[in-house]
Specification:
263 residues; mainly alpha; two-stranded antiparallel ribbon
Length: 263
C-alpha cells in the first residue's frame, strides 16, 4: 500500500512549479501565443499535468518568506523565469521574419502580408512559408522534447525561489545571439537576394539600351516569377538553416538558465 500525504507545504511548492511552467507554455513555440490554434483550456490543462509530473522530482527546499507579499514575490520570480525561457525558444524562430522580408523585398512581394499563427503578427508571404517549414522541422526533429526537458532540468540549476537575474550575463547572451540571428536570416534569403540583384542590374542595363521598353511593368513580373522559382529550388536547403536555428535555441536557453542560476 502506497501512503502519500499532500500537505500545505506541498501545495505551496506545487503552485510555484505551476507558475513557472504556465508562463513557459504561454510563450513557447508550437503551443504558445494567441493564434496557434491551441485553446487556453488546453494550455492550462497541459501545465497542470506537467506540473503534477514534475512535482516529485523538483528539489523541495525550504521556502523563506514572511508574509503573503513575500510569497507573491516568489511567484513573480518563477513566472519571470518561465517567460524568459519561453522567450529564448520563441525568439529564435523570428529569424524567419527577417529572411521573409528580404526575400519579398527583392521579389516584389513586400506589400503582401499574412498573419503568422506562431507569433500573432503580420509577416510577409515568404516569412510565413519559412515559419511553417521551420515549425514542421522542429516537430520532426523532436526539438519540442528538448524544450520541455530543459524546462524540467532548469529546476536543478534554478531551484524554487532561486532565480537570480544577472544583467551582464543576459547582455552577453543576447549579443552573441543577435550576431547569429541576422547572419542566418540573411543566409536563408541569400540565393533569392543574389539572383534578383543580378536581375535588377540586367534590367537597368536594358532600360538604358532600349529606353522605349517599359522595364517597370516587365521587371515586376520577371522578379516575382524569378523569386518564386529560386524559392522553390532552394527549399531543399532549409534543413541546414533549421538545424542552425535549433542549435542556437539550445544554446540560448542554456545561457539564460546559467544567467538566472545562483550556482
Amino acid at each position: 500500500m502506497i501512503a502519500y500525504t499532500f500537505t500545505y507545504a506541498n501545495l505551496l511548492h506545487y503552485l510555484l512549479i505551476f507558475a513557472r511552467i504556465t508562463a513557459f507554455v504561454a510563450v513557447a513555440p508550437l503551443i504558445g501565443g494567441q493564434n496557434t490554434g491551441v485553446s487556453n483550456t488546453v494550455k492550462i490543462g497541459f501545465s497542470v499535468l506537467l506540473s503534477v509530473l514534475l512535482v516529485g522530482s523538483v528539489p523541495k527546499e525550504e521556502l523563506i518568506y514572511s508574509s503573503v507579499v513575500g510569497y507573491a514575490v516568489i511567484v513573480i520570480k518563477e513566472v519571470l523565469c518561465g517567460l524568459i525561457l519561453g522567450f529564448a525558444a520563441q525568439i529564435c524562430l523570428q529569424v524567419t521574419a527577417i529572411a521573409g522580408q528580404v526575400v519579398d523585398m527583392m521579389a516584389g512581394l513586400s506589400m503582401v502580408t499574412m498573419m503568422d499563427p506562431t507569433s500573432g503578427s503580420q509577416v510577409t508571404v515568404s516569412g510565413t512559408i519559412y515559419s511553417q517549414v521551420f515549425m514542421t522541422m522542429m516537430i520532426v526533429s523532436g526539438m519540442y522534447r528538448y524544450m520541455f526537458s530543459a524546462l524540467a532540468e532548469s529546476y536543478q540549476w534554478i531551484p524554487l525561489n532561486g532565480v537570480v537575474l544577472r544583467d551582464d550575463s543576459f547582455v552577453l547572451a543576447m549579443t552573441a545571439f543577435l550576431k547569429n540571428f541576422f547572419v542566418i536570416g540573411f543566409r536563408v534569403a541569400l540565393p533569392v537576394f543574389i539572383v534578383t540583384f543580378v536581375l535588377n542590374i540586367t534590367l537597368g542595363v536594358l532600360a538604358k539600351v532600349a529606353p522605349q521598353m517599359n522595364m517597370f511593368a516587365v521587371g515586376i513580373q520577371i522578379k516575382v516569377l524569378t523569386g518564386l522559382t529560386i524559392l522553390f529550388i532552394t527549399a531543399g536547403m532549409l534543413g541546414s538553416a533549421a538545424d542552425f536555428i535549433l542549435r542556437n535555441m539550445r544554446a540560448l536557453m542554456e545561457q539564460f538558465i546559467s544567467a538566472m542560476s545562483s550556482v
